[in-house]
Amino acid sequence: MTAFSLADLDRIVRSRAAASPDQSYTAKLVAAGPAKPAKKLGEEAVEAAIAAVQGDRAGLVSEAADVLYHLLVVLVGSGVALEDVMAELERRTAQGGLAEKASRGRP
Fold this sequence. Notes:
By secondary structure, this protein is an all-alpha fold. The protein has a domain at 6-79: MazG-like (Helix Hairpins, Orthogonal Bundle). The chain is 74% helix and 0% strand. Keywords: Amino-acid biosynthesis, ATP-binding, Cytoplasm, Histidine biosynthesis, Hydrolase, Nucleotide-binding.
């Protein structure tokens, strides 16, 4: 397993988002406003789902990496810290999945 973490990627995305849009694809996405990176996230998520359904392991790995990257870009552009998402995941995993889902009041 690699030592590279989601927190590492988050630091890279945040650093690149602060760069000039002329110098950084990440900065260009963030500068475009929330719709552009959100659209890219959706596209990559669909591609990941298709790869999973098709049993394309290599494709799924690649698309999952794209999903994680674009999710972090959306978070950065929306002013949401990865730590907030991780805290929410930690809160949710403190109880069983079905109990946690029921506590949200959604099916």
